[in-house]
Write a structure and sequence with these properties.
The N and C termini lie far apart (58 Å). By secondary structure, this protein is α+β, with helices and mostly antiparallel strands. It has an eight-stranded mixed β-sheet with strand order 1-2-13-10-15-5-4-3. A four-stranded antiparallel β-sheet has the order 9-14-11-12, with no helix packed on it. Strands 6-7-8 form a three-stranded antiparallel β-sheet, with no helix packed on it. Helix content is 28%, strand content 16%. The chain is built from eleven helices and 17 strands. Bound molecules: 2-oxoglutaric acid and fe (ii) ion. The site of 2-oxoglutaric acid (AKG) has 11 residues, from strand 5, strand 10, strand 14 and strand 15.
Length: 402
């Protein structure tokens, strides 16, 4: 093969090694009338993928690349709005809805995360930046409905995979995106700014720039200084026009991450990404972080903590994170992703004993050591809302404690 700079520093990914299962959703029917044979086939494929790997890629899922790209353009437009306009849409913690600035989330409890996130749980235009950005609400609402429809198909296939009635999970997720605060399912738009080392400053700084095709964001790159409240510091920087387009300052210990290691809190997550930008996972039974890679157009599905509890870890929640890629040509591009977190209705009690008495519902099948989340759920049963609120408090700290 011709030797190029890009080939020289190529990193092996699970995809290049053929280790990510791919499920084809072509001809799966409509939301109202899914094709039974496809639901069954996908169910059987999910059973193998999710138990062995905790993830797989979905292709021909019906959500077009064009539609995803337009959503990322809308997010770029939002990030480019003046600070005081973005403030109006900030996530308050009453529910998960709203804008989350870089540095606010800390999945590992300490390392600030280099990303802009807009969480969407309610689809009406008053809760979305429709006024400053006409067209945002309609496009994002329509995309959220697409992800919801895809999730409803997967919920039915998941039931088949566990040999329980096809409607079992659907009934427990009947309020997704209903706007009535009965369900925490969320569409999250994410933008990870590009990172370029500033050699003039002897690598003390990392600079942001905008050279990627979907990289129209020209605005704030946050400043991370650890001693006081990071939120105040970012607010302070954000409001300062001189700092626009300039620097992300590293913590003294050099610690920065695009998204810290975590498992998702809900039933499962659907994830679309626009490029290879550092997504890593720990496959079940392995302690090694492995780069996933990027298959254009595909949507990744990974199991969350609630599905893990329900299935007694037969479908384990997948630890994942987004690192700053070591290859300069990759980290100097920004990255966009969209996650749809599929959650049960808030009042659904989540117990390992919920599933009808099948293989997944019997204690004898699973001989693996039990994780803390599983043990806790076994001792005391919480509803979906209590479980997720506890996890939000861990991620957002004090800002979520009301
Ligand atoms: O952006 C990504 O690839 C992952 C995001 C993620 O894991 C999350 O927000 O929970
Ligand atoms: Fe995640």
């Amino acid at each position: 093969m011709l030797k190029t700079k890009a080939n020289d520093d190529k990193v092996d990914t699970l995809l290049t090694k053929g280790l990510v299962p791919i499920i084809d959703l072509a001809h799966c029917g409509t939301e109202e009338a899914p094709v039974r044979s496809v639901v069954n086939r996908v169910g059987h494929q999910l059973q193998k993928c999710l138990s062995e790997k905790g993830l797989c890629l979905l292709v021909n899922h019906g959500i077009s690349d064009e539609k995803l790209k337009t959503a990322w353009d809308h997010l770029d437009d939002f990030v480019d709005l003046p600070n005081d306009v973005r403030e109006l849409y900030i996530r308050t913690g009453d529910d998960n809805h709203g804008y989350v600035r870089p540095g606010v989330e800390r999945f590992d409890g300490k390392t600030p995360e280099l990303r802009h996130a807009f969480n969407i749980c309610t689809l009406n235009a008053t809760n979305l930046p429709e006024e400053p950005l006409p067209g945002f609400a309609e496009h994002i609402s329509s995309l959220a409905q697409d992800f919801k429809a895809l999730s409803r198909f997967i919920l039915q296939a998941l039931a088949v995979s566990l040999d329980i009635p096809q409607s079992f999970f659907l009934e427990k997720h009947s309020h997704m995106l209903s706007g009535d605060h009965d369900n925490e399912s969320t569409l999250r738009l994410l933008y990870y700014p590009p990172i370029i080392e500033d050699t003039d400053d002897k690598n003390d700084f990392v600079k942001g720039s905008c050279i990627y095709s979907y990289q129209r964001c020209l605005s704030d790159q946050p400043d991370f200084r650890p001693e006081s409240n990071p939120r105040d510091e970012i607010n302070e920087l954000d409001g300062n026009e001189e700092n626009k387009n300039t620097t992300v300052r590293q913590l003294p210990n050099g610690e920065m991450i695009r998204c810290g290691a975590h498992t998702d809190y809900g039933t499962f997550t659907l994830l679309a990404q626009d490029s290879e930008g550092g997504l890593e996972v720990k496959l079940p039974g392995s302690e090694k972080w492995q780069r996933v890679g990027h298959l254009p157009g595909a949507i990744l599905i990974n199991c969350g903590e609630i599905l893990s509890i329900w299935t007694k870890e037969r479908y384990p929640a997948l630890p994942h994170r987004v690192v700053i890629p070591e290859q300069q040509h990759i980290r100097s591009r920004g990255r966009h992703s969209i996650a749809f977190f599929c959650h049960p209705d808030n009042l659904t009690m989540i117990s390992p004993n919920d599933l009808p008495n099948t293989e997944a519902g019997t204690d004898t099948v699973d001989k693996k050591p039990r994780k803390k989340s599983f043990k806790a759920a076994k001792e005391k049963v919480y509803n979906a809302y209590q479980l997720i609120q506890k996890r939000f408090r861990e991620t957002y700290g004090q800002q979520n404690s009301h």
